[in-house]
Amino acid sequence: MDRNPSTVPLLMDLHVITEEAESRREATRMADGGGRATRAVSTFQRFSVDTDESLCFEPCEDNLPSPIGAEDVFKVADTESDLVTIRSQLQGKVTEMENFASHLEEIFLTLEENFGRQEQNLEQHYNDVLQTLSQRYDDRAAGLEEEKKGKLEALYKQLLACGQAMDASKELIETAQDVYRCHDKRLFLKAVMPAIRRIEEFADEQVDLTLATSLEFNAPLADLSDVKTMMDSINIVPAPSAPVINPQAPNSATQTSLRVCWSLFSDDTVEYYELYYRPVLEDTPADRTGAPHAFLSVSGVKVMETHCTVTDLLPNAQYELWVTATNTTGISPASEKTLYMTVPSPPVIKQRECTSCPEAALIRWESGNTNPVDSYTVELRETGTDASESGIAESVVAVPTCQCLIQLQTGRRYLICVRAVNIGGPSGRSEVITVSTTGTLFSLLEDTAHPCLSISEDGSTIFYEEEELPISAMALEDNNAFTRCVAVLGDLIPVRGRHYWEVEVDDGTEFRIGVASGDTERNSYLGANNTSWCMRHILTPSRHKYEFLHNGWSPDLRITVNPVRIGVALDYERGTLSFFNVALEQHLHTFQCHFHNHVQPCFGLDNPGALTVHNGIEAPNYTFI
Questions:
Q1: pLDDT digits over 362-403, tens only?
Q2: How far is it, in rounded angstroms, from Cα 498 to Cα 318?
Q3: Fewer CB within a 10 Å sphere, N or C end of the chain?
């Protein structure tokens, strides 16, 4: 590419000027606090443009002051923190703008949807109007066609009548002419009289010479009131259709509240909704119309959204709900009634009936709710000896009944509670109980106790009072109670493991202690059948006699030291039932039997006295060797 010769010196001089400016700035930056470095001699020159477009350079004095602010242009004063602050502010602005843009996009889509619905609605209305007008036109055209046909038929009939009259007139004229031309007088006289009569008759006939129909067509006023109504309805919002309440969603309730959702057709315009509800009680009679619970008070709430949370309700109660939609035109029909339920009340654990062993625990509770619940959830958390709780909580879910057998670890303490669950969600926790797996814990089954037995409040001691019972008390209604042996069964946990408990007795009490099947005969003595195994103490004038009975047979054993605290060890795995003198750690006897069914502790008194059961204690080391 060729250059203009006059521009080459100009470009070279500009390059020199740039280099001089760079060297001047470098000298300025080298200045320090103690003094300034001597400025290099500058060859920076001012230039001007002459009229002949050539550049003239003049030397520039070094001591001339620089223009005000010239050095500040090249100075960077922003620190790193300022940059970070500005950047964060810009990022916030960007985020805000992005959110606003997203909001605008949603509004745009909503407007598009609304416009589409309105356009479709308008098109439908106008199509209905055009269809109505087209139908009216077809009906009117068909009416005009029928009227035209009637007029033409009437004119045609009148035309035929005129033609017939003209033919008759011509015929009479021709007949009169023939009679006139007749020269025979006899024939003339014979023909003239009939011709005269016919002419007179024809003259007497009235011929209607007026038009039989009007030439104008009827033009009735068209009734377009319905079309006008349809046109007016274009600008009128129709009343909404009936909403549809959604089925209750899981976990959508609390003890005192319900979250209700419903839906509506998308082309309906609604200003607000009204939700109505009332409780459903099973013992409330129906009204005369057959509608149950009609006289219960109905509550309502007005909302703008398609969902609502109803509060101040009863726990574990069914509520009947329905909803209506309202706009400027009117109120929609009510939706179909739907049943919702609040969550149940917390269950009540029956701590006295809860049993445990080193491997498991059987928890029993009462529902505490009038309406049935779907299931229960048992929650447990391990706790230390210092009452510190473990961070791990376990749950047993979908328990169908009011009891649950939980597998646990030996030698631990657990905090256990129960929740009731229905479609609305889980209830609050029940009272927490502490379960220890150091030993076997059980309670006495009072429904199996003989009428002569009484049980202490803590459920650990049984008494046989020396008094006669009335005959009414002896007429037992409960078939589960012992009738002959004054005994009671214990509620042992149904776990086939190792169980241990102790019984405290005195020398003057005759007793029977051991185990028996749950279906052992109630009118038999313990140890006298094949479903019970027991240790029996008998007082004789000479000594204390001890028997270990099963099916009425006992080995010949002699115990020299009377035990006052007897340990009972049941081992399902080995099929053994052992008795020990706790004070002496002495083994007394062991039954060898494979227990095919679960057995329960049994306690009997053969004379007035008492015995105390100690359970929930750890088995000594010598019991299961």
A1: 999 998 887 888 999 999 999 876 656 666 689 999 999 999
A2: 46
A3: N
CA-to-CA dists, residue 75 to 29, 78, 79, angstroms: 11, 9, 12
Distances, alpha carbon 39 to alpha carbons 14, 29, 73, 287, 492, in Å = 22, 11, 21, 112, 108
Among candidate residues 306, 309, 321, 308, the one with its CA nearest the CA of residue 266: 306
Q: Note whether 383 and 340 are within 8 A (CB).
A: no
Each residue's pLDDT tens digit, 592-607: 988 888 999 999 999 9
Could you tell me the CA-to-CA distances from 395 to 188, 372, 469 in Å, in that order? 140, 21, 49
The tokens describing 363, both together, are 């928890």
Q: Which structure tokens are listed for 39? A: 């400025």
Q: What is the DSSP letter of 458?
A: T
Nearest-angstrom CA–CA distance, 92 and 585: 80
Q: Which stretches within 3-79 are classed as H helix? A: 7-29
The H or E element containing residue 48 is: strand 45-49
Q: Give phi and psi for 128, each to the nearest 5.
A: -65, -40
For residue 601, which amino acid is it?
A: P
Structure-token pair, residue 425: 């969600």
Distance CA 548, CA 529 (A): 13
Q: Give φ, ψ of 419 to 5 degrees.
A: -120, 145
pLDDT tens readout for residues 283-302? 544 443 444 444 468 999 99
Look-up: residue for tokens 């790193």? 80
pLDDT in tens, 56-101: 434 444 444 444 444 444 444 457 777 878 888 888 889 888 878 8
Q: Give kind and range of the element (H or E) at residue 189.
A: helix 185-204
The C-alpha atoms of residue 505 and residue 538 are separated, in whole angstroms, by: 13
